[in-house]
Design brief:
two-stranded antiparallel sheet
Length: 119
């Protein structure tokens, strides 16, 4: 388990690397957090705080997608992406979405970003 100070330092360094679009550095920083077993399979790198928050949000939403009520391939989504100023761990900024609904939400966000920034 990492300390709050370590987590904040990792988040700051990771955020800086992502803003600089330095994926090699961002990936190296993420690996320092360590990987965890998530639902019986080795998963993307998560820290322990996120694993607990994810469980909490899935329980709150009854393990169902808040858009279509599916229980298949559910994921926890940031309503306002952290990269756009959304809170990482605030329950009000987290929701359960199935993979198809999450993909559609992400697609719509990319369209809006393209319209806003031209890329």
């Amino acid at each position: 388990m990492i300390t709050l100070e370590q987590r904040e330092a990792y988040r700051a360094a990771y955020g800086a690397a992502m803003q600089a679009r330095d994926m090699a550095k961002a990936n190296a920083i993420a690996k320092e957090w360590g990987s965890v077993e998530l639902e019986g399979r080795q998963s993307t790198v998560y820290n322990a705080d996120w694993v607990e928050k994810r469980k909490e949000i899935l329980a709150r939403d009854g393990g169902r997608c808040v858009k279509c009520a599916s229980t298949e391939r559910v994921q926890v989504d940031h309503i306002v992406p952290v990269s756009r100023g959304g809170s990482e761990f605030d329950n009000a900024n987290l929701q359960t979405l199935c993979r198809p609904c999450h993909k559609e939400k992400t697609r719509q966000e990319l369209i809006r970003r393209h319209e806003e920034y031209g890329y």
